[in-house]
């Protein structure tokens, strides 16, 4: 079965968007999935289609659009979450 989890964070004043990364691997090397939030007003997002009875690791960073690409902030401390059935 798949499940969902809501992730929230504090708003950063200069950030027009955020990236949320959530793998099963605590080293963030394998099976990494990313959700991009494109609104500076949004301070939470739902991560969907998670496998039940597993631990996921979540970290967040802000980004800002500059000429030629994006400028990313540093990743937050990873949080371990348990997904229930």
Instruction: Report the order of strands and helices.
Output: EEEEEEE
Give the helix proportion (percent range): under 10%
| Distance N to C terminus | 7 Å
Mean pLDDT: 90
Can you offer a commentary on this structure?
This protein is mainly beta. The chain has no helices and 7 strands. The protein has strands at residues 2-8, 17-21, 34-37, 44-51, 54-66, 69-72, 79-83. The strands form 2 sheets. Strands 2, 3, 5, 6 and 7 form a 5-stranded antiparallel beta sheet that branches. Strand 5 (54-66) and strand 6 form a beta hairpin. It starts with a strand and ends with a strand. The model has no long low-confidence stretch (mean pLDDT 90).
Write the layout of secondary structure elements.
Elements: E1 2-8, E2 17-21, E3 34-37, E4 44-51, E5 54-66, E6 69-72, E7 79-83
Give the structure's gist in a few sentences:
With 85 residues, the chain is an all-beta fold.
Task: Please supply descriptive tags for the structure shown above.
globular, mainly beta, 5-stranded antiparallel β-sheet, 85 residues, two-stranded antiparallel sheet
């Amino acid at each position: 079965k798949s499940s969902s989890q809501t992730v929230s964070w504090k708003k950063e004043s200069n950030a027009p968007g955020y990236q949320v990364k959530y793998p099963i691997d605590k080293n963030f090397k394998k099976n990494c999935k990313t959700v991009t939030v494109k609104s500076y007003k949004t301070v939470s997002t739902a991560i969907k289609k998670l496998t039940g009875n597993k631990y996921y690791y979540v970290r967040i960073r802000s980004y800002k659009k500059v000429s030629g690409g994006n400028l990313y902030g540093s990743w937050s401390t990873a949080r371990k979450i348990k997904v229930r059935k």
